[in-house]
Amino acid sequence: MKIIRCEESDYADIERLEKKYISTPWSEQDLKDALRGGNGYALFKAVKDGITVGYGGVQVIADEGNITNVAVDESVRRQGVGSAIVEAITSHCRDNGARKIYLEVCVTNNSAIKLYEKHGFETVYARKNYYKEGDAAVMSCEVLCSKSVKA
Ligand SMILES: CC(C)(COP(=O)(O)OP(=O)(O)OC[C@H]1O[C@@H](n2cnc3c(N)ncnc32)[C@H](O)[C@@H]1OP(=O)(O)O)[C@@H](O)C(=O)NCCC(=O)NCCS
Question: Which domains can be identified in the chain, with CATH numbers?
Answer without folding.
Answer: 2-145 (3.40.630.30)
